[in-house]
Amino acid sequence: MIPRIVLGVAAALMLLLPWPAPVSLPGLLTIAGALLAVWAVHAPGSPAPLLLIATAVVSWLSAVPDPGLVRIAIFAAAGYVVHSAAALSAAVPDGAPLVGSLLGWWAGRTLVVLVVGWSVVAVTALLTSQPGSAALVVVGMLAALTLVAIPAVVLRWSRS
């Protein structure tokens, strides 16, 4: 139950952070995202978390012209927590007791990923001197891809 609550809270944060006008395209996307958030909490193993994150990103890109570094970091963290909580919720059957060690492992792993991500964003912000610039976004995405893809490929190869 705890991962589903975390999933719902992170989804709400992710959808409300852009705070668009309700009659605009971003506003309609936020309303659609709210419906997807309900679906994601109800069925975390479905495509709902992916669609929720995609909808929130499109809403963010269309509603927030200059978000600032702190808002970018919070939005990205909420997106990762949605992903991580959905993965844990999908793995643990609904209504099953959640062992404290599993919850601690999940929270620790999520925190490590967030700290690494925020560190990459901080370093790229220092290097580009313009938070929120295209260079920051590109360098941050390449660094995140590198930090995620290389260990995943190495682990997959080592298991083969």
Description:
By secondary structure, this protein is mainly α. The protein has one domain (2-159). The protein has six helices and no strands. Helix 1 (2-16) packs antiparallel against helix 4 and helix 4 (69-91) packs antiparallel against helix 5. The termini are far apart. The model has no long low-confidence stretch (mean pLDDT 81).
Characteristic terms for this protein:
160 residues, globular
Spell out the blueprint of helices and strands.
Layout: H1 2-16, H2 25-42, H3 48-63, H4 69-91, H5 100-128, H6 134-159
Helix pairs in contact: 1-2, 1-4, 2-3, 4-5, 5-6
Separation, N- and C-terminal Cα atoms = 35 Å
Number of helices: 6
Major β-sheet annotation:
none
Low-confidence stretches: none
Structure class = mainly alpha
What is the alpha-carbon Rg in Å? 17 Å
Task: Please give the number of β-strands.
Answer: 0
Number of domains: 1
**Average pLDDT metric:** 81
Brief overview:
With 160 residues, the protein is mainly α. 79% of the residues lie in helices and 0% in strands.
